[in-house]
Write a structure and sequence with these properties.
- By secondary structure, the protein is mainly beta.
- A seven-stranded mixed β-sheet has the order 3-2-1-6-7-4-5. It has a five-stranded mixed β-barrel with strand order 8-9-10-14-13.
- The longest helix is centred in the middle third of the chain and has 12 residues.
- It is elongated and about 70 Å long.
Length: 277
Amino acid sequence: MRALFVYLFASLVLIGSAETLITDAKIISSSEGGYVLQVGTQPLAVEDNYQTRFYRNKEAAKRDGFKAGDTVVCRIKTDADPPQLREMADKATWQWLDDIRKKPQKGQITKIDSKFVTIKLDIGGSHSYRATEKSDVLIGGKPGTLADLRADMVVYIKGRTLPTLDTFADVISNQAIVIAKKETATTTGKQKTKKMDPIEPEGVLTGTVTAVHGEISMFDVQADRVLHITYNSSTKFSLDGSNASASALAVGLGARVTYKRDKSGRIIASRVDLNKS
């Protein structure tokens, strides 16, 4: 397995720091040290460790709950060699986890300890929220403490994701949580960010290469926004007018990309003309 890792990533160059990729994948194989995933049409070898989080059927799960052939969603730290698997879940559970991290949830407390409050959620499953004295506890709309919470209490909880991937309990209340609307440009003096229209189903775009993800046959182009461009064996490359290959991709090059979008919305390049000026 180690030899396979080396083989797949011998020519891999990762750009930037703390890069994270969240992607659908299919497990090709697994070993003690990690997995080989199919991401798109390409294999991607990743390692996992004691910090890797696994979720299945709307619950925290163990590593051995996943096997070859499973379709999953993964969070991968791509600026490591080999890339590090930080989270893996079945697709439905990934959406469940995303909702927990972004939206207030209602549920019943099943366990409280010195670090976590575990909630049986109305949306299904159970989740343990990291709770400290910095968590806002509201009882009847008034400030309380973690000591006011008890098992079987029905609560509303708002979380956010920590760098460790724990879900921190920002607010725990026995009443519904109302999320304040963000201030408008009138009250803040700042201009609203204009929502950009999606690019056309096919066409040509130009910009500057800002990142190269060779392990998944993808690179990023800064145009009027950052766009993720996928290439394949049919994609034609040139560099300063001469025929080239994908290995010519480098941060800072200008790029003229002829593309079509597939059913998943990916931007698939049929031709990439690179230039140094």
